[in-house]
Design goal:
The chain has about 240 residues and is of the alpha+beta class. The protein is about 35% helix and about 20% strand. Helix 2 runs antiparallel to helix 6.
């Protein structure tokens, strides 16, 4: 309804205790408790000013309330937010971040690295959401660190190390991301406006857009390389259709 490409995303938080987050939700009119458990984040009240491809004021009243996301608590110290687009995930992080404060920490991200056709929604959006639990590849940054160390192991001078590193990066450009990717975030390095999360999601959205257009030979690394060469001017993803 809000115009972005359909791309299910989950944000995983750690928190000291569930009660503190519950108090925040109770103070918001745009968050309501769900009958099935958890909380629903509506495109309304405090969240009405958020901007998506189709702003709230352009949507007919009969489509409301629009659910932007669903919060659930797998355990007393973990919280998950489920949304259906990368832009919703970015806006959610920026919207709730100041309210959650430093003790509620966004630690991981899981997403499906492709767009969906409208016809695929015939099976039900909930069934598409559940694809986030199928064939998940969890990214371990220590594996990448070990690979870089191995690539530099034979180099002795600074020049040799640079050549070895560039060679490693060229080889990595040929390797693409998995369909369902679960990756760690780096909260200790994140900015208050969630710049790194935004770049992570938008680059993957760009790759999904290119694949949707038929450019399936492009890897995520190649897409990033092209955007950097272009000075970042191509870092936008339009709705597929």
């Amino acid at each position: 309804m809000t115009g972005e490409p359909f791309q299910p995303v989950r944000l995983y938080y750690s928190l000291p205790k569930k009660a503190a987050t519950t108090r925040i939700f109770l103070a918001l009119r745009c968050v309501v408790e769900a009958e099935s458990g958890g909380w629903l984040w509506h495109y309304d009240e405090e969240a009405a000013a958020l901007k998506f491809s189709r702003p709230r004021q352009e949507l007919p009243e009969e489509v409301h309330p629009i659910i932007l996301g669903r919060f659930r608590f797998p355990s007393k110290d973990r919280m998950v937010l489920e949304v259906r687009s990368g832009e919703r995930a970015i806006e959610a992080a920026k919207f709730f971040g100041p309210m959650f404060g430093p003790t509620v920490v966004l630690r991981r991200l899981r997403m499906i690295n492709r767009f969906f056709e409208a016809s695929e929604a015939a099976v039900g959006l909930d069934r598409l959401d559940k694809l986030l639990d199928a064939n998940v590849v969890c990214i371990d940054p220590t594996v990448t660190e070990a690979a870089i160390e191995a690539a530099l192991a034979g180099a002795k001078t600074q020049e040799e190390k640079q050549r070895a590193y560039f060679s490693y990066c060229e080889e990595r450009r040929k390797i693409d991301v998995p369909l369902v990717e679960d990756l760690p975030l780096h909260p200790e390095e994140e900015t208050t406006d969630f710049r790194d999360l935004g770049m992570t999601l938008r680059f993957r959205g760009l790759r999904a857009f290119e694949h949707w257009k038929g450019n399936t030979h492009l890897t995520l690394a190649e897409v990033i390389h092209r955007v950097v060469e272009d000075g970042g001017r191509g870092l936008t993803v339009g709705p597929p259709g």
